[in-house]
Design goal:
By secondary structure, the chain is mainly α. The chain has helices spanning 6-14, 30-43, 48-60, 64-77, 82-94, 98-111, 116-128, 132-145, 150-162, 166-178, 182-201. α5 runs antiparallel to α6, α8 (132-145) runs antiparallel to α9 and α9 (150-162) runs antiparallel to α10. The longest helix is centred in the last third of the chain and has 20 residues, at 182-201. Mean pLDDT is 83; it is low at 1-14, 16-30 and 200-205.
Amino acid sequence: MKLRSCLSLTIIIVLVIAFAALSYKRNSIWIEETTLWDDAIKKSPKKARPYLSHGLAFHKIGQYEKAIKNYDIAISIKPDYAIAYTSRGIAFYKLGQYEKAFKNYNMAIAIKPTYAIAYFNRGIAFHDIGEYDKAIEDYNKAIAINPNYAEAYTNRGTDYALKGQYKMAIEDFKEACKMGDRNACLNLGIMTKSILFQGIKKPSQ
């Protein structure tokens, strides 16, 4: 995609992107957490939730293959488990396996059409492969379901900026910044200063 101006280049280089698929709370007991869910699985081997939680624990420490194995089992026990499909999609995304990631996001959405997180994460994947219009469509859906989804506004604003639609990008960053998204506030400041700088640099007519 050709950049439309030096302003485009400035913004694209410095924008802070909020593309973090599912935000997991950080703590210092990750290893103990996997052990905890090992025990839960032994006690309830026919329940899907312990396998999902075990997978999320592995996900937190970057062991995506192990996470996927647990999501597989959770889904085999509960085939309509939308969060397990989304989580597995994110794990495949982390491994760079986009086709499998999309397949899982699509399944999650088919099972639960009001699942904003699935649309959000599919939007991230579309962004990564340069499909900005499709990414924006998914963020639109996520925001329609959850109007307070600050990260979706931030990511949509970033894709608007990449498409050269700066007014819409600024509006999204403003909205997300009001909700407390720090990346959005930073992006808003960067874009505002960049636009002001470009205006100052223009020669008088």
